[in-house]
From TrEMBL:
<dbReference type="Pfam" id="PF01370">
    <property type="entry name" value="Epimerase"/>
</dbReference>
<keyword id="KW-0521">NADP</keyword>
<keyword id="KW-0560">Oxidoreductase</keyword>
<dbReference type="GO" id="GO:0016616">
    <property type="term" value="F:oxidoreductase activity, acting on the CH-OH group of donors, NAD or NADP as acceptor"/>
</dbReference>
<feature type="domain" description="NAD-dependent epimerase/dehydratase">
    <location>
        <begin position="11"/>
        <end position="248"/>
    </location>
</feature>
<dbReference type="InterPro" id="IPR036291">
    <property type="entry name" value="NAD(P)-bd_dom_sf"/>
</dbReference>
<protein>
    <recommendedName>
        <fullName>NAD-dependent epimerase/dehydratase domain-containing protein</fullName>
    </recommendedName>
</protein>
<dbReference type="InterPro" id="IPR001509">
    <property type="entry name" value="Epimerase_deHydtase"/>
</dbReference>
<dbReference type="InterPro" id="IPR050425">
    <property type="entry name" value="NAD(P)_dehydrat-like"/>
</dbReference>
Length: 332
């Protein structure tokens, strides 16, 4: 597959100090990118990015930009040939005000990034959407593995208060409308539950799902689950999508689709010392197992890391950062 990479041209990463964003920066450095615009929420810390291998011989420039501030975003995006747009509120907690806390920043933030990209001649934007723009979709046929043609049912989300999925779906729809109207090259990636070692000090939402499961949570992730993926693969896929001229449309990024109950069973076998809840039966009756659900990325050459490795790496990282205590054991 032909690559359009000129690694000396600048690229911008929004949400660069978050879980996936930090891995995108790390992977860009590993792959020889030399000029990275690190766009972060004003007042937050990006110091861990400067200790990454290769950071000292590259130019990392920090831009403090709320994605709701078009002028600040434009400064971050200026002179970049590619933009990885990741900044978006990422929480599965119930918000007090979904419109202000989730939907507005996701949708208007995306439009602000795309407007800046279009005006400033960015050649491609890789938009981090989510499986949460594919599901929940209760009308998806249960015999068919989920793929990129699925869209989240917004009426279902409203009725069941699934606000995060609503925010990601509305943001992606707005992005496609904008791309079509303005002739901007946008490619979207849809990661499943993303796991692995954290480079940033805080705990992000997807690693919290694993942490809670290890601590005995009975939450079946009803509306938020298709499968899991190593954060390293998500970062690699993002760069692959920037560099592959023929890439277009939506790319599901998961190492297979499978039941959350099966995931819990696998975790319980891997870590018998933790009180992992074993669900009785399927947690996701309409979800069909599929090993190569991310066929579009596999066809571009991405080889997925086993989910077990993603989990082991995440657990080690949770332990080393003090989120998961060693002494938690199953009480009989
Ligand atoms: N992790 C997953 O499993 C997963 C799966 C599918 C899709 N995604 C998507 O991937 C992206 C990154 O997620 P993540 O897991 O890396 O979460 P994360 O660690 O919470 O990163 C999100 C980043 O966005 C920033 N942000 C939020 N609102 C902002 C605003 N108004 N202005 C500027 N920056 C803002 C956050 O800044 P703060 O430092 O202030 O928090 C944070 O750095 C998100 O778009 C998410 O929806 C994640």
């Amino acid at each position: 597959m032909a690559s359009s990479a000129n690694k000396e041209e600048a690229v911008c990463v929004t949400g660069a100090n978050g879980f996936i964003g930090s891995w995108v920066v790390k992977t860009l450095l590993e792959q020889g990118y030399t000029r990275i615009h690190v766009s972060i929420y004003p007042g937050t810390d990006a110091s861990h990015l400067f200790t990454l291998p290769g950071a000292s011989s590259a130019t990392l420039t920090v831009f403090e930009a709320d994605i709701l501030d078009p002028d600040a975003i434009a400064k971050a995006v200026e002179n970049c040939r590619g933009v990885f747009h990741l900044a978006s509120p990422n929480t599965l907690e119930e918000p007090k005000d979904p419109q202000t806390e989730l939907i507005l920043p996701a949708v208007q933030g995306t439009i602000n990034v795309l407007q800046a990209a279009s005006r400033l001649g960015v050649r491609r934007v890789v938009l981090t959407s989510s499986i949460s723009a594919l599901i929940p979709n209760p009308s998806w046929p249960s015999h068919k593995p989920y793929d990129e043609t699925s869209w989240t049912d917004l009426d279902y989300c409203k009725a069941h208060k699934v606000w995060y999925s609503m925010s990601k779906t509305l943001a992606e729809k707005a992005a496609w409308d904008f791309a079509e109207k303005h002739g901007l090259d946008v490619v979207a990636i849809h990661p499943a539950t993303c796991l692995g070692p954290s480079l940033q000090p805080g705990l992000n939402a997807s690693c919290a799902v694993l942490l809670n499961l290890l601590q005995g949570s009975k939450d079946p992730q009803e509306n938020y689950w298709l499968g899991a993926v190593h954060v390293k693969d998500v970062a690699k896929a993002q760069i692959l999508l920037l560099e592959t001229p023929a890439a277009s449309g939506r790319y599901l990024c998961t190492n297979g689709t499978f039941q959350f109950s099966d995931f819990a069973d696998r975790i319980s076998k891997l870590f018998p010392e933790f009180p992992v809840y074993r669900f009785n039966g399927k947690t996701h009756p309409g979800l069909k197992d599929c090993k190569d659900a991310a066929k579009r990325l596999i066809d571009l050459g991405l080889v997925f890391i086993p989910v077990e490795d993603a989990v082991r790496d995440a657990v080690e990282s949770l332990k080393s950062r003090g989120f998961l205590k060693q002494e938690e054991t199953v009480t009989i």
